[in-house]
Structure formats: C-alpha cells, structure tokens
C-alpha cells in the first residue's frame, strides 16, 4: 500500500475574492508585515524644517558609508544603519534623537518606541516622507488609500 499524498487540492483558494480596499488590509495583516504605528509620543522632537533635507544618497556623516543610510529627523544628520556601523543607533544613544527615516525604503523608525511609524498617516511626518520620496524617485508618492471612510466623508470639496 503506497501512501499517496493527495495530489489534488480541494481548497477553493479563489473563494477569497479580492475586493478593492479591503484586500490590502487583509493582505497586510495576513502576511505578517511589520506593523507601523500610527502614533508616536516623540514627534515633538522632530526638526522644525523637514522640507529641506539631505539627498538620499548622502553618505554617513561619520564613516562615509555611501548608501542606505538613515536621516535623523531631529537634527537632519545622515548616519548609517545598524547593519553597517550602527552610527544612527549610536546617535540615538548619545543624543536621544529617536526618529529616523530610512533612505533605503523611506520607512520611519522610532528608537524610543522601538517601532516603525507610519509616516503617511501622520501630518508631522507626511512632508518629509514626500520630500524624501521625490528626492529618491523624482516624482511624488502615489496616494495611498488611508482611512478611506474618513476621507470619503469629507471629499465633497475639491
Ligand atoms: Zn516614538
Ligand atoms: Zn556610519
Ligand atoms: Zn539627530
């Protein structure tokens, strides 16, 4: 008697219809994305001028590592990641500047919260996210469907 593994899968995978909007949320939750916080208690330490920021290819201020550095959102220093020489991490430990934007994927990390912060939903972070995006890609970021219900309620104006 050979144990034959059932070759045919009877799972109806296509049953999960991809409805616009909801699909993105489901996908994000199920695929185990690192969750980004939509609030951070340390936004008061943000630099007041985050419109003028260094270019994404600015080398680390300390070791001159050329790419994938972090921008300190408190003093705008560009420092390398924990996978290079940990200069951003050291900067946080020395100064308690805790908010940094990754030039490699434009995510914002708060060292004090020990969490990613969703820059696209926080008004304090949206401008620097957009500026960094434009510097990196040469065009403004696509509009993400955030809080669609709330937006829809006030979408009568133009
Ligand atoms: Zn924080
Ligand atoms: Zn460095
Ligand atoms: Zn700093």
TrEMBL record:
InterPro entries: Znf_RING/FYVE/PHD, Znf_UBP
Alphabetized SMART domains for the sequence: ZnF_UBP
Swiss-Prot/TrEMBL keywords: Metal-binding, Zinc, Zinc-finger
Molecular-function annotations in GO: zinc ion binding
A family per Pfam: zf-UBP
PANTHER family on file: HISTONE DEACETYLASE-LIKE PROTEIN
Protein known as: UBP-type domain-containing protein
């Amino acid at each position: 008697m050979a144990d034959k593994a059932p070759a045919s899968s009877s799972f109806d995978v296509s049953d999960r219809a991809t409805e616009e909007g909801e699909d993105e949320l489901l996908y994000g939750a199920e695929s185990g994305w690192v969750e980004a916080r939509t609030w951070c208690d340390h936004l008061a330490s943000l630099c007041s001028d985050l419109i003028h920021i260094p270019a994404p290819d600015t080398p680390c201020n300390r070791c001159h590592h050329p790419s994938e550095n972090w921008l300190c959102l408190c003093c705008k220093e560009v420092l390398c990641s924990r996978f290079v020489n940990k200069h951003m991490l050291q900067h946080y430990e020395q100064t308690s500047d805790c908010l940094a934007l990754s030039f490699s994927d434009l995510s914002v990390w708060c060292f004090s919260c020990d969490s990613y912060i969703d820059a696209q939903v926080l008004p304090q972070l949206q401008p620097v996210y957009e500026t960094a995006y434009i510097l990196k890609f040469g065009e403004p970021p696509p509009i993400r469907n955030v809080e669609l219900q709330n937006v829809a309620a006030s979408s009568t104006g133009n």
